[in-house]
Amino acid sequence: MTPPSSAAQTIAEWQALAARDPDEAARELSRRLRTLLPPAQQAAAIASRATPRSLADAFARASAAARASVAAAAAASGASDDSGDADGNGDDNGNGNGRGRGDLEGRARTRAAQRVGVGDGDGGGDGNGASYDSGDADGVGNGNGNGGGDAPLAGAPYVLKDLFHARKHPLLAGSGFPAKILARAHAPSETAREVGIVRSLDEAGAVLAAKTHLHEFAYGITGENPFHGDCAHPGFPRRVSGGSSSGTAVAVASGLVPFGIGTDTGGSIRVPASFCGLYGMRLGAGHPWMREAFPLAPGFDTPGWLARTAADLLAINRALLAAPPAPPAPPAAPAAPSTPRKPRGCFLDLASLGLALDAATAKAMRDAARRLAPPADRTTRGQITSAFRGALESYSILQSTEAYEVHAGWLDRHRRHYSDTVWALIDRGRNWTPAQLDAAHIKRAAIRELFRAYFHGYDFLVMPATPFPALTKSDCTLENRNRLLTLNSPASLAGLPVLTLPVALGNGLSAGLQFIVPSTGSPAIRWALKTYPDGKA
User: Among 178, 218, 329, 386, fewest CB within 10 Å belongs to which?
Assistant: First the structure.
């Protein structure tokens, strides 16, 4: 189902094609939108497509932006002063010095960061007072440098999960509701649009190819949908893609586009990334990009993206996760230079979490995790598993309560537009007792405290995202749904960012690892993406 090997597939290849011949880039993307997916899969994955004319216009703008960015960078390089680093090199933390070639680009990145208001509310740094050996020669380190100029994704096509608003595209949220009802129920404010992910991608030069279907109202983790069709795994049609960002995962895994935007509430990026062999990035809870999206559970919803390669995920992170400039430090005595070091973490396996799986999958997960971290010691393992016990129940109570608040005005009035399954999942949110709600809040607080304590000594935690590869339709049971949520709900309760790393199982199928960090600014993210693909620890 993948396009010919000679066709553009990565972000860099699409950018080269768009710069060389924007009309050909538009024709190639239009062709893929029409013919790459089988008809049933296309209906299940693609909610609405950009027109050939709009694609041609978008690629033309992207090509012009790329040329302008190159010219601006060249001009800035010629105007650099002697006190700056002529190469715009980064320090050990991957931070560009804002001089030389990077100066103009750095100012543009700062403006973008101020517009987006990046931050996940979970704090930054590693709590250990030491820098990581993760700097880039181009001054880019996990979104804290400058690289890429005003249009770092110029000519890169993407798909957008149909929870986000986009001009000239209806919003259905994977549901059976008429679009006009949803439009009346939820329209983002102009302020939300100002900091929206679509605007940020437009400014970065990316080209919107299509909006993608999802599990109904994002309330599911398999990719099944009674209104638009089940999203099948691109390589294994009898298996599901995972959800709820199912259409996005299919579009990326099939080679339609190099990356796509999704959301993650309880695993909706992590599970489809794992099932489809993709890299995924879930940001932190409370991100302003979610203000323009139709909510599932606002306190848990997070934006993010999926990509086919680690290099592409790094490119997206660099383009979209620019950190605002740090305030000037007060005068102080020169500090001793910090010693670069490798990030510290540990691996929590499935057996520790009480989840069994077949020996081959267990071995593949252990081998993949060892590329990043050793197993947790007995004390750490005991502390984590004790805190995680009951996380699924706490998540289910709190998340469904928020989902009911979103749908309360029309859950009963428009019941015919819901599937029975999703209606029941939302309906339970009005039936929890005060005692159940209190217990759930206490458990969430305990998990957040556990992570706060853990990140004082470690930079990341590795644990499975899925206990098995993509499920067959008959295996999409409540028991397996709960097994997936058992793994993914702790990070959701804590509101933490998570990088998803695919684990190949040797038979074309895949599972995935969660790489949990304290903030999207953690240099450990870039370290993992540089370390993991070639298996070097």
Answer: 329
Structure tokens at 280: 């995924």
Cβ atoms of 313 and 307 within 8 Å: the answer is: yes
The distance between the two most distant Cα atoms of the chain, rounded to a whole number of Å, is 69
Q: Report how far residue 272's alpha carbon sits from residue 256's, in angstroms, rounded to the nearest whole number.
A: 16
CA distance 95 to 89: 8
Place of tokens 């004390």: 379
- Give the torsion sign (CA, 177, 180, 185, 188): positive
| C-alpha span between 185 and 163 (Å, rounded) | 13
Average pLDDT, rounded, for the chain: 84
What pLDDT was estimated at residue 118? 33
Closest CA to 522 of 143, 70, 175, 196: 143
DSSP-based three-state secondary structure for 337: coil
Contact residues for 435 (Cβ-Cβ < 8 A; gap 6+):
none
Tens of pLDDT, residue by residue over 93-128, are 334 333 333 333 343 333 333 333 333 333 333 333
Distance separating alpha carbons of residues 3 and 252, to the nearest angstrom = 12
Which bin fits 342, alpha (ψ -120 to 50), beta or left (φ > 0)? beta
Question: What pLDDT shows up at residue 136?
Answer: 39
**Is the distance from CB of 303 to CB of 292 less than 8 angstroms?**
no
Instruction: Decide: 486 and 440 in contact? Cβ < 8 Å.
Output: no
Task: Note the pLDDT of residue 179.
Answer: 87
pTM of the model: 0.84
